[in-house]
Task: structure prediction
Amino acid sequence: MNFNNVFVIHLTRFNTLEDFEKVLKFNGIENVDANKLVEHKKNGYLKIFFDRKTSNPIAFTHNSDKKKIHFQENYLDFLKNMPSLSYESDYKKNLDVDTILEKISAQGINSLTKVEKEYLDNLNK
Result:
């Protein structure tokens, strides 16, 4: 998910069911129920953040704590399990046995990085 696929509805900016219906129609949002937005506003919700592709809510703010954004549990799971970016650095390309052995001699085997250990493990393959 990228943040271009997230939209927010500020519930406090609209007062009637017709207002919510207009904003949804104007923005081409078909899968969000205007009646539920009115109900959420009455229950103290201030903003609701939606996934544009699915129209599923991903987060909200509430009167009880206006500064805190509460994320839906499934979205939190998505964020927790999201793969991290990486790259293959020039460091990995410049590894050599002599340099690694010197490091082990000077600092001990536990000083090796994961990349250095993998390099040594792959030498015999």
In short: Helices lie at 17-26, 34-42, 73-80, 90-93, 97-107, 114-123. The chain has six helices and four strands. Residues 90-123 form one domain.
